[in-house]
């Protein structure tokens, strides 16, 4: 639950910047897809398989890391996992083997999986339960997503896929930031123990997790194919596709900050429910509106997907106060990564029909998430 204490700003700022350096590698995988299609002649299904490789293994192991951090504090995971995430993506363009590409991208996913549960635990304690502070922590990850297509385009468009080792630079910076953040993110033992008091509400947590899966399916589907789709719908080239992916990620950064502020005024669950309703309408615009207005609907969809992002984390942790690591692992890992499972299905349908037809089912998915959320109540104090 939120508290009235003002959280220290330096640890949250450093954690947010470190979060950005890690989530660059989640965004980088989707940003690499058009280059794999262009340079290696991958089909939509093959390219989406790479997105799946980055998310599937991560989805399995991230709750495991969450359970481990509930038993033992593992702050060293933050810098180490950041380096692993960067190494996997940096090697993705080395060599032409599809299998090798899948393996190294999966390794990057493991690094991302190891980072998030412990980082969410550290950030929640350093934030003293503040929605706004957790929003800033989440903002870092969103900015990393937003920077990914620009970083990938700058490196790969200039040097080709074989220049991918240069993509390791953010990991080196992120590991340094994590070490600095951990030095100032300690919390008194009595305060940390008090934060763990409360009753675990598994039924509510399960409904919330189901809604986040719906959100994940929409986000991963759009992030994997919006670049290619924008080229088709706007008649532009590589730049139009990169711009669409950038808008999708940058809108998320703005949405995350707004989400924390709105939740303080209107309540978390009300904001989350309205966000899911907005997302369905915005995705319909993405699918059916041609030309430059497409970018407006991409931005609206991004806001709808990301306004509730940090609120998902705090709700999950408050529904499972005895297992905040598990809550973070499932919320930031399993439920988010499950969306990657739908990505190859979208790719197969796109190969058989068209991208527009393949993306159309995403319009209905947020409505299912809204139905799961409508029966939830705020966690007990």
Task: From the structure above, extract its key features.
mainly alpha; single chain; 15 helices; Growth Hormone, Chain: A; globular; 381 residues
Architecture overview:
- This protein is mainly α and 381 residues long.
- It has one domain (9-373): MFS general substrate transporter like domains (Growth Hormone, Chain: A, Up-down Bundle), CATH 1.20.1250.
- It contains 15 helices and no strands.
- Helix 1 (9-40) runs antiparallel to helix 4, helix 8 runs antiparallel to helix 11 and helix 10 (268-288) runs antiparallel to helix 11 (294-306).
- It is globular and about 55 Å long.
- The chain starts with 8 loop residues before the first helix and ends in an 8-residue tail after the last helix.
- Mean pLDDT is 83; it is low at 188-192.
- InterPro entries: MFS (IPR011701), MFS_trans_sf (IPR036259).
- The chain crosses the membrane at residues 12-36, 42-61, 73-92, 136-161, 167-187, 208-230, 242-263, 270-288, 294-315, 327-349, 355-373.
Q: How does the SSE layout of this entry go?
A:
Blueprint: H1 9-40, H2 44-71, H3 77-90, H4 98-126, H5 131-159, H6 169-183, H7 189-195, H8 202-234, H9 238-266, H10 268-288, H11 294-306, H12 309-319, H13 324-352, H14 355-359, H15 365-373
Helix pairs in contact: 1-2, 1-3, 1-4, 1-5, 1-6, 1-8, 2-4, 2-13, 3-4, 3-6, 4-13, 5-9, 5-12, 8-9, 8-11, 8-12, 8-13, 8-15, 9-10, 9-11, 10-11, 10-15, 12-13
């Amino acid at each position: 639950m939120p508290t009235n204490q003002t959280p220290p700003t330096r640890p949250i700022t450093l954690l947010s910047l470190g979060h950005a350096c890690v989530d660059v590698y989640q965004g980088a995988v989707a940003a690499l897809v058009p280059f794999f299609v262009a340079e290696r002649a991958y089909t939509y299904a093959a390219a989406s398989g790479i997105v799946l490789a980055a998310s599937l293994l991560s989805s399995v192991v991230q709750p495991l890391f969450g359970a481990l951090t509930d038993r033992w504090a593992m702050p060293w995971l933050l810098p180490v996992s950041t380096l692993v995430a960067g190494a996997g993506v940096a090697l993705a363009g080395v060599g032409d083997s599809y299998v090798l590409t899948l393996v190294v991208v999966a390794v990057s996913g493991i690094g991302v999986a190891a980072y998030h549960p412990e980082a969410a635990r550290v950030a929640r304690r350093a934030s003293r339960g503040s929605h706004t502070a957790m929003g800033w922590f989440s903002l870092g990850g969103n900015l990393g997503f937003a920077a990914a297509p620009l970083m990938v385009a700058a490196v790969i468009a200039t040097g080709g896929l074989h220049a991918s080792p240069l993509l390791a630079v953010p990991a080196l910076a992120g590991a340094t930031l994590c070490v600095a953040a951990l030095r100032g993110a300690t919390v008194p033992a009595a305060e940390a123990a008090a934060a763990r008091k409360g009753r675990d509400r598994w039924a509510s947590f399960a409904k919330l997790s189901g809604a986040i899966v719906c959100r994940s399916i929409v986000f991963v589907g759009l992030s994997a194919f919006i670049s290619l789709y924008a080229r088709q719908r706007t008649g532009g080239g590589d730049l139009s596709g990169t711009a669409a992916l950038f808008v999708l990620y940058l809108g998320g950064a703005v949405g995350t900050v707004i989400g924390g502020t709105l939740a303080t005024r209107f309540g978390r669950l009300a904001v989350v429910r309205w966000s899911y309703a907005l997302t369905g309408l915005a995705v319909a615009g993405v699918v059916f509106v041609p030309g430059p207005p497409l970018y407006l609907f991409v931005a609206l969809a991004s806001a709808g997907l990301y306004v509730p992002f940090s609120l998902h984390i705090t709700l999950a942790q408050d529904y499972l106060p005895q297992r905040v690591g598990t809550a973070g692992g499932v919320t930031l890992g399993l439920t988010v990564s499950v969306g990657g499972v739908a990505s190859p299905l979208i790719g197969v349908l796109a190969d058989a029909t068209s991208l527009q037809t393949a993306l159309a089912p995403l319009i209905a998915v947020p409505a299912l998430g809204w139905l799961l959320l409508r029966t939830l109540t705020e966690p007990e104090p």
